[in-house]
Amino acid sequence: MARMVKHFSLHRIAGTELRVVSDVEAGVLPVVQIEEAVIRGYARQGLWPHQWVTLFVLQDLQPLVSQLRPEADLPPGGTAALDFRPVINVYDLANLAGCHVFINQQAMEKEGYWDDPLAIQALLAHEHAHPLAENETTRASRRLQVELSLERLPSGAEQEAHDRRWTADRQDKVHRLLTLLANKLCLYAPREFFANEVTICSGFAEALLHLDRRNVANASRSVAGRGDLRRQLQQEVTQGSLTSAAADVLLLIGDLKGYLELALEVAPFYRAGRESDGQELEAVLATDVFPHLEPEVPRAYTALREWYTALQADLTPLELVAWSEEVVDILAEALAEKELVLGYRLWATDR
Fold first, then answer.
1. Is residue 126 part of a domain?
2. Does the N terminus or the C terminus of the chain have fewer Cβ atoms within 10 A?
């Protein structure tokens, strides 16, 4: 069924035509005002490249998903991940005359952002920072590919595989989760890192810090749910369907997937000279999050945050391959502590 448009308006902001389309009943005008403030902020910095922006405020992003082409450059997780993205910016690097910004009301409400103007400002400023943050490194990142393999399973898992306890489905799921994580941490990371840095340096540092405070607080609360996974795995161990070593590595993978990406949020504050902001966020992680995770996680997080902070903006594809190999090495070293040996291959395509 076609969506009914419940709001349409045109605005002129800092020489930019802002077109607003929404199928949402209420709450659109405050979002429009925040978008206007973000446009003005970037325009004052002399960074604004667009002549027009179409802002879609939608119940969810299914209208966008239905229009995407197979070759679209999507974040890790593909179209399925769009259900969880609160805001996304669709733009053409070959023609920055305009862009399309999509706001996912359901995702915003789920994360608690819908009624938080400062969080909305940070999200919009970050999305608009993506085309502004383009450089040699981000362009090279679009050519990178990574391929992972499970070279050795934890103690007992080979026997589990032999007697069908460590099933092919379980191995496939582990492989998919680790591939998704590697894509986020090395292939997509430069674009997120530099977009965050531009956001901070363009007058939106306080808004982004506010958003990251919320994200770190959410991470603290999510630790409670980790106990459910631990109990589920322990039950399988008790029933004899899983060894303790295999359960440990599965728990570690859940921790790595859930919390390593926070390094991409914190590192830009250090890079932008706002060490106190980064230290504030990490103090919460050190107190409320990391003590409840596998010990390999904070070590991997610190190594990643330092590596991201040192990321240069002028890397060639081959140099970025070498940089990304270090990222996967950090992930592989954490997994090796639980006896899962990860193999990988990174390369740059010709396109």
1. no
2. N
Residue 231 falls inside a structural domain: yes
Would you call 50 helix, strand, or coil by DSSP?
coil
Residues 202 and 315 in one domain: yes
Write the Ramachandran bin of 173: left for phi over 0, alpha for psi from -120 to 50, otherwise beta: alpha
Q: Could you give the CA distance from residue 14 to residue 203 in angstroms, rounded to a whole number?
A: 16
Residue 22's identity, in one-letter code, is S
Report the C-alpha gap between 160 and 72 in whole angstroms: 40
24 and 89 together in one domain: yes
Domain count, the chain: 2
Q: Which of 282, 81, 105 shows the shortest CA–CA distance to 183?
A: 81
| Burial of residue 172, with CB atoms counted within 10 A of its CB: 0-12 exposed, 13-18 middle, 19 or more buried | exposed
Q: What share of the chain is helix, strand, coil (3-state, %, to 5)?
A: 60, 15, 25
Tracing tokens 């009943």 back to the chain, one arrives at 25
Both tokens of residue 172? 């496939």
Structural domain boundaries enclosing 248 = 137-348
Whole-model pTM: value is: 0.92
- Taking the C-alpha atoms of residue 241 and residue 233, their distance in angstroms, rounded to an integer, is 9
Residue type, 158: E
Task: Provide the token pair at 158.
Answer: 């080979």
Same domain, 161 and 278: yes
CA-based R_g, the chain, Å: 21
- Residue range 142-156, pLDDT digits in tens: 999 999 999 988 765
Distance CA(68)–CA(71), nearest Å, equals 8
Whether residue 292 lies inside any domain: the answer is yes
In a domain, 125, yes or no: no
Q: How do residues 215-249 score in pLDDT, each as one tens digit?
A: 999 999 999 888 888 899 899 888 887 888 888 99
Q: Where are the alpha helices (H) located in 56-204, listed in sequence order?
A: 62-65, 78-81, 105-111, 117-132, 136-141, 157-162, 168-182, 189-199
